[in-house]
Specification:
Layout: H1 4-9, E1 13-15, E2 37-41, E3 48-50, E4 59-62, E5 68-76, E6 82-87, E7 93-97, E8 101-102, H2 109-118, H3 122-135, H4 142-167, H5 170-176, H6 180-185, H7 191-195, E9 200-203, E10 208-211, H8 214-222, H9 227-238
Antiparallel strand pairs: 1-9, 2-5, 2-8, 3-4, 5-6, 6-7, 9-10
Helix pairs in contact: 2-3, 3-4, 4-8, 8-9
């Protein structure tokens, strides 16, 4: 298959078509459990569901990051640690350490989640930032989290470029007959990022991915006077995206 005419028509940068779905941690994406006010698990290291509000309580299960719980009450144990009485579905309830979850209705949880995001690394940072963006839409810290999310996306693009170049064989791609860029855009390393709402562009001449700039665009459009907007405009200019003046 001769791809030369196609290459002439394609721009230098290709927007990823693997958009994927947004992370299911958004409250609107999944039916919350009944029986109380809903919260989202953000720290799976603390998310052991127990029969009593004590660390010695029998472990019922560990709730994954992004899981939804319904808070029914709370109790401080003899060690001064606060546990929530929660439902995780209509049949299962137990006690969960307070710091394992956040909720938009609880004052200060956006700041606490921001701190956790800043302390996280790599993909963990992206997932927790996604939870923030899906659930704290009116928070004053949203521009900061958008910047963190976008920068993490660009950092991911760097190592994805290296991984794809190592794993995609040039001869095999030529033998397959599809446009070379399409093999990169279907690279399975992109999948988990797509599921978090991060998509990439691909520079065919350099064989490199770039974050598509959506987070920076939101900062510029929605928070044009924020400190983050100055840097966002620089980032958009660097990837050749159009930003409002």
């Amino acid at each position: 298959m001769n791809t030369q005419p196609l290459r002439k028509l394609l721009p230098l940068l290709f927007v990823a078509t693997l958009l994927g779905s947004l992370d299911m941690t958004a409250l609107g994406k999944r039916r919350p459990p009944p029986g109380g006010r809903v919260a989202i698990v953000v720290d799976e290291r603390l998310s052991a569901l127990r029969t009593t509000p004590e660390f010695s309580g029998h472990l019922l299960r560990r709730i994954g990051r992004g899981g939804l719980v319904a808070i029914r009450g709370e109790k401080q144990n003899r060690n001064g640690v606060v546990f929530y009485r929660v439902n995780i579905n209509s049949r299962t309830s137990g006690w969960l350490q307070r710091e394992a979850v956040v909720s938009p209705w609880r004052s200060g949880d956006d700041a606490r989640l921001l701190g956790l995001i800043k302390g996280s690394q790599d993909f963990d940072r992206i997932v927790r930032a996604r939870i923030f963006l899906d659930n704290f839409k009116l928070s004053e810290f949203r521009p900061q989290v958008l910047m963190i999310f976008a920068e993490a996306g660009e950092d991911a693009a760097n190592h994805l470029s290296r991984d794809a170049s190592r794993r995609l064989d040039q001869q095999e791609m030529k033998g397959g007959g599809a446009p070379v860029f399409s093999y990169f855009m279907n690279f399975n390393g992109l999948d988990r990022y797509n599921r978090q709402g991060i998509t990439f562009m691909f520079d065919l001449s350099e064989k490199r991915f770039h974050y598509d700039g959506e987070g920076w665009q939101e900062i510029v459009h929605r928070y044009p006077r924020s400190p983050e907007a100055v840097e966002a405009r620089k980032r958009l200019a660097a990837i050749g995206a159009s930003a409002p003046r």
